[in-house]
Amino acid sequence: MTRRLAWLDALRGVGATAVLVEHLNYHFLDGLRPRWMNLGIYGVLVFFLVSGYIIPASLERRGEVKAFWISRLFRLYPLYLLVIVITLALAPLLPLRGDADFFAHLTMLMEVTGSAGLVEPMWTLSYEMVFYLLVTGLFVAGVHRRSGLFALAFAALASLVAFTMPREGHLLDGPWAPLVVLAVVAAGLGCVLYGSRSLRTAGGVALAVLAVALIWIGSRETWQGAMILSVMFTGTAIYRWQHGQSSGLWPVAGVATLIVVVPFLKPVTFNGLTNLATMGLAAATFALFFALRERALPRVLAWLGLVSYSVYLVHVPLLKLALLVLGDTRLLPWPVQLALALTLFALILGASWLTYRFVELPAQRYGRRLVSRSAGGVGELSRPRDTRTVSS
After folding, report:
1. In whole angstroms, what is the distance from residue 99 CA to residue 115 CA?
2. Contact 16, 348 (CB under 8 A)
3. pLDDT value at position 224?
4. In this structure, are residues 230 and 238 in contact, taking their beta carbons and an 8 Å threshold?
5. In angstroms, what CA-CA distances link 244 with 54, 143, 240, 251, 381?
6. Same domain as 125, residue 74
7. Which of 142, 157, 136 is CA-nearest to residue 209?
8. What pLDDT was estimated at residue 386?
9. What pLDDT is recorded for position 383?
10. Does some domain include residue 78?
11. Whole-number pLDDT of residue 389
């Protein structure tokens, strides 16, 4: 990875570490957990900004929807499926979440189809997948470069529904929703990847409409789903400004105003001031690493970025297993809690390196080989390539 791209891995490392520390803090040294901000949500927001910055650029660099989806599937699904298998195997020891749905897990859209992830952090993958579907539809329709407007539109939607349509819980419920969504995703992607020009357009529109609908009626809180997409498109807007594809950062300023005002004036999930501090710190972290993108960063951060996806998915099952053995660790003396927390931290990083080395990396390499083999046969899915080097 080149120096100018290492900052993205470093940011992923910061995000994954923040989520891991937050979950450890619930069981070890809880008194040290910051109450003025939410460390886990901070890490998630950093991830969303990074995804927004790099995912549309990755699609445009390849210029091929098929290559993009092969890359994404082999990047996300192998480890995801392995963690699901491990979680199911541990069911006699660690009971499964009762509202987890099989078909919802096939699409990763659990959080927006009335289901729950078998592993708690999987909820963010649903919004990643919604973003992929929406970006694919916009790309096929040829309107993908209007990222600033999309960021503002979703921020405005978050502002509107937070005050006019307050609700908690999914509107999509029941076993039919994940199955219908799976069918629409399969049909839409089939049209986009293999259909005629008119079918590709229709499939792209269907995927984009589905993505917006899932945010509107599938999110536990519509304002939160819209805010997440706004954050991701903000990352895209920054990329476009950096590479001379837009006239300025005015959409970023507009989004910042809207998504900060909403949770501050209408606190949902946690205190408005905490929300404000969390989002502000995530934005400041992204801005800092962006400013340092041409400089050498500590290698440990880049390494944490490489294993960040494994850390994110693997740490919860490992933590639950450890707590099953240790019991209520909060009753232990603080030196013992500290020693156990550091030990678990190291073990989780070690296990994450193993899953990265033996699951993620081989799958990514195989995905790249598939992309290379199919490159000659997807010309009519292509748009002009962006020749800049982009890591995905």
Report:
1. 6
2. no
3. 83
4. no
5. 15, 17, 6, 15, 25
6. no
7. 136
8. 35
9. 41
10. yes
11. 31
Q: Name the token pair of 385.
A: 């390539």
pLDDT at 254: 86
Alpha helices in 218-249 (DSSP H): 222-242
Q: Number of structural domains, the chain?
A: 2
C-beta pairs of 100-108 under 8 Å, 24+ apart in sequence: 101/175, 101/178, 102/178, 103/175, 103/178, 103/179, 103/181, 103/182, 104/177, 104/178, 104/181, 106/178, 106/182, 107/178, 107/181, 107/182, 107/185, 108/76, 108/80
What sign has the CA pseudo-torsion 52, 14, 221, 34? negative
Phi-psi region of 157 (alpha: psi -120 to 50; beta: other; left: phi over 0): alpha
Integer Cα distance of 197 and 201 in angstroms: 6
φ/ψ of 64, rounded to 5, equals -135, 125
Which positions of the chain have pLDDT values less than 70?
1-4, 162-174, 260-272, 375-392
Report pTM: 0.90
- Lookup: tokens for 332: 């232990």
388 belongs to a structural domain: no
Domain residue limits at 159:
97-269
